[in-house]
C-alpha cells in the first residue's frame, strides 16, 4: 500500500507543522497590527510587516464548506473512500479557514455549521491537523 502524501514544510509554514507535532494548532499573527492569517505568508497580508509570530488557537472550528470524494485520485486514498475535503472556520480566529479533511464521521451526517475539533494524523515525519465532529461528553 502506498502512503498518503505528506505536506512539505517551508520556512513560513514550519511553525505550523512544529506545533502540530506537539498536538497544538497555531496560526500566523502579525505583531504590528494583530492580523491573523492562513496559510502562513512571508509578510502580513494587511500591513506588510515581517514581524509575524505563531498564535495558538483552541482547535475548535465550524464546518464552512465540504465536498465528498468517492473516487481515489491517488492509490493511497483508496481505503479512505468516501472521504471529505472541507474548509473549516476557526472559532477563535475569525476569518481564518483551513482546508482539511473531516475524519471520524459519516459524510452523510455532516453539514455546514457543524461544530468540529482538531485531531492529528501522523503521515511519515509530518503531523497533519484534521478535524472531526465535536465529541459530546459521556458518549
Ligand atoms: Zn500586520
From TrEMBL:
Residue ranges of the TM segments:
none
Source organism phylogeny: Bacteria, Bacillati, Actinomycetota, Actinomycetes, Kitasatosporales
List the Gene3D superfamilies hit by this protein, alphabetically: 6.10.30.10
Tree of life domain: Bacteria
Q: Specify the ChsH2 C-terminal OB-fold domain's residue ranges.
A: 55-120
Q: What is this protein called?
A: OB-fold domain-containing protein
Q: Where is the ChsH2 rubredoxin-like zinc ribbon domain?
A: 17-52
Q: Which Pfam families match?
A: OB_ChsH2_C (PF01796), zf-ChsH2 (PF12172)
Q: Which InterPro entries match?
A: ChsH2_C, ChsH2_Znr, NA-bd_OB-fold, Thioester_dehydratase-like
